[in-house]
């Protein structure tokens, strides 16, 4: 079933290959709420900047055109307008799908070419007040660059995928920006190139010029032992688990539920949107380095942050011959996508 009839209209139903519902409606509802917050900020601050963003977001994914595969009945997004505002929940969702897909390809290719081991690194600083958030992130970006210039880090690692995440402590009204970093390392990293957790911590402290000891987590993605015959099945399973763990950190930063709490425009939500907008606008939230950057380039992957959000999987742009179009339009009253 591609769509179901209710009264005299049909509601969009889009499912993945595994039958999971794609929640277009839910994302659009959250985007509309985000748009209302930008409107609220325009009223509060009086700057047209916020009104313009409100309008952009409210126009996001108003109309979706899909191609339907005749054989499987599955829908494939073919045309849509996405606003690309950093805090738009609809766009954040599309980006996270795209980043996850890219990372899957990149990790597969890196495994094939370099057979690296993988480690996860989490770099944090103390929570900050809203008005310090922007500067703190700027400092962290600089600190990060410095960190990867330290000799031991440079020689011990093969590259990185970095994602900035910001969570909020609602009780204390503070923000917690931190980096999730996925790092391929040579297999012999665990020998003499090994960087202990305490070293990562002191490198980060030094790079950030902090007067306190920051919390730094480091973890090997998967401990692979030497191959013996009967472990092959286990190997495969472990490789899959490793991949899953890797994709876990591809999730796009700021979850929208963490930005706006509840379903209404509130003063606290307006503050959150104000500070996050200020801190994140026109900023790159993800980055690749070393071999991962090279592979990203070699695979000709487009920009997941500012690029096309319609086509997620870039290789299959030619749609099967036997398709027809399905068009769905957002209906403000019904609060759902209606097939037109
Ligand atoms: Zn959008």
Uncertain runs? 223-230
How many structural domains are formed by the residues?
A: 2
How many H/I helices?
10
Enumerate the distinct ligands. Answer: zinc ion
> Which value, in Å, is the CA radius of gyration?
22 Å
Based on DSSP secondary structure assignment, what is the total number of beta strands? 11
Describe the oligomeric state of these chains in a short phrase.
single chain
- Give the terminus-to-terminus CA distance: 16 Å
Helix content: 40-55%
Q: Average pLDDT value? A: 86
Describe the sheet with the most strands: 5 strands, antiparallel
Keywords: DNA replication
GO molecular function: DNA binding
Protein name: Protein rep
Family: Belongs to the Gram-positive plasmids replication protein type 1 family.
List keywords for this structure.
binds zinc ion, 40% helix, 340 residues
The gist of it:
Helices cover 40% and strands 21% of the residues. It has 340 residues and is of the alpha+beta class. It has two domains: 1-82 and 310-340, no CATH class; 90-308, no CATH class.
Describe the structure.
This protein is α+β, with helices and mostly antiparallel strands. The protein folds into two domains: 1-82 and 310-340, no CATH class; 90-308, no CATH class. Helices cover 40% and strands 21% of the residues. It has helices spanning 24-45, 48-58, 89-114, 133-147, 151-156, 197-208, 232-248, 256-259, 267-280, 290-298; strands at residues 3-6, 9-12, 63-69, 75-79, 117-124, 159-169, 174-185, 216-220, 286-289, 323-331, 336-339. A five-stranded antiparallel β-sheet has the order 8-5-7-6-9. The protein has a four-stranded antiparallel β-sheet with strand order 4-3-10-11. A two-stranded antiparallel ribbon has the order 1-2. The chain starts with a strand and ends with a strand. The site of zinc ion has 9 residues, from helix 3.
């Amino acid at each position: 079933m591609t769509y179901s009839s209710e009264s005299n209209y049909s509601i969009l139903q889009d499912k993945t290959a595994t039958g999971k519902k794609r929640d277009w409606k839910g994302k659009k509802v959250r985007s509309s709420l985000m748009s209302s917050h930008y409107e609220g900020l325009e009223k509060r601050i009086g700057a047209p900047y916020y009104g313009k963003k409100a309008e952009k977001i409210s126009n996001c994914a108003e109309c979706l055109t899909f191609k339907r595969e005749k054989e499987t009945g599955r829908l494939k997004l073919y045309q849509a307008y996405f606003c690309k505002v950093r805090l738009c929940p609809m766009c954040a969702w599309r980006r996270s799908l795209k980043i996850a897909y890219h990372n899957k390809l990149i990790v597969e290719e890196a495994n094939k070419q370099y057979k690296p081991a993988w480690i996860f690194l989490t770099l944090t600083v103390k929570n900050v007040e809203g008005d310090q958030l922007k500067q703190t992130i700027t400092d962290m970006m600089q600190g990060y660059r410095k960190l990867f210039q330290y000799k031991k880090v440079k020689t011990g690692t093969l590259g990185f995928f970095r994602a900035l995440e910001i969570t909020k402590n609602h009780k204390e009204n503070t923000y917690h920006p931190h980096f999730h970093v996925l790092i391929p390392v040579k297999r012999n990293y665990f020998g003499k190139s090994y960087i202990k957790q305490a070293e990562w911590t002191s490198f980060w402290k030094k790079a950030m010029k902090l007067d306190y000891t920051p919390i730094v987590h480091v973890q090997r993605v998967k401990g692979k032992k030497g191959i013996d015959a009967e472990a092959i099945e286990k190997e495969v399973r472990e490789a899959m688990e490793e991949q899953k763990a890797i994709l876990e950190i591809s999730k796009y930063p700021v979850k929208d539920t963490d930005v706006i709490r509840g379903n209404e425009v509130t003063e606290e939500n307006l503050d959150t949107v104000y500070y996050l907008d200020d801190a994140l606008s026109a900023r790159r939230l993800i980055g690749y380095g070393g071999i991962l950057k090279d592979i990203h380039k070699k695979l000709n992957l487009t920009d997941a942050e500012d690029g096309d959000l319609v086509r997620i999987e870039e290789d299959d742009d030619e749609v099967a011959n036997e398709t027809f179009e399905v068009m769905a339009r957002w209906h403000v009253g019904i609060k759902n996508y209606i097939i037109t």
